[in-house]
Amino acid sequence: MENLNRVVSSEAEQLILVDADDREQGHLSKAACHDGAGVLHRAFSAFLFNSAGELLLQQRARSKRLWPGYWSNSCCSHPRRGESMATATGRRLSEELNLTADLSFVYKFQYQVPYGELGSEHELCHVFLGRIDDNVRANAEEIAAIRFASADTLDAQLSEHPERFTPWLKLEWDALTGEYADLLDAYTCLEKPPQ
What we know:
Layout: E1 14-18, E2 24-29, H1 30-34, E3 41-49, E4 55-60, E5 71-72, E6 75-77, H2 85-97, E7 103-114, E8 120-131, E9 143-149, H3 151-160, H4 167-177, H5 181-188
Parallel strand pairs: 3-8
Antiparallel strand pairs: 1-2, 3-6, 4-5, 4-9, 7-8
């Protein structure tokens, strides 16, 4: 029987260090990358939409070192040493959500945000959009809960309770609904079938 709730990540895994232009600068453990103010490393965020144009959101597992229990975008992680972005995104969609999806690259950006005294995110993050069906089987080792939300619902929740969401989701959603709204519309504003 398939184990959907397997352990798929470790603080010892080697991440890819980069400079501000996303040029590889070496490797460091995930733990060390997130210690203190963090060390700049390559990462990705995927925003996955169902056939109704709703975004899949995940609540991070309570066991996460940084932002445990916070709501975030569909999938976010890091390429490991020697991995291409395509390999890393495919691996992580399978590990976290037990699915595959074709992803379209939108943009990349750098951010740095501390989480109290426990560490920081300091990432050069590649942002992707993709489509999926509603058959998502979340890995409970990584994800506490999942739900789908329309763009309007997410906007309202971000306005009412921003403290419930990860900082990268808020930064990325602002960019997607602003500068990249035309691309986002292709996923959220799906044509309704004729009556």
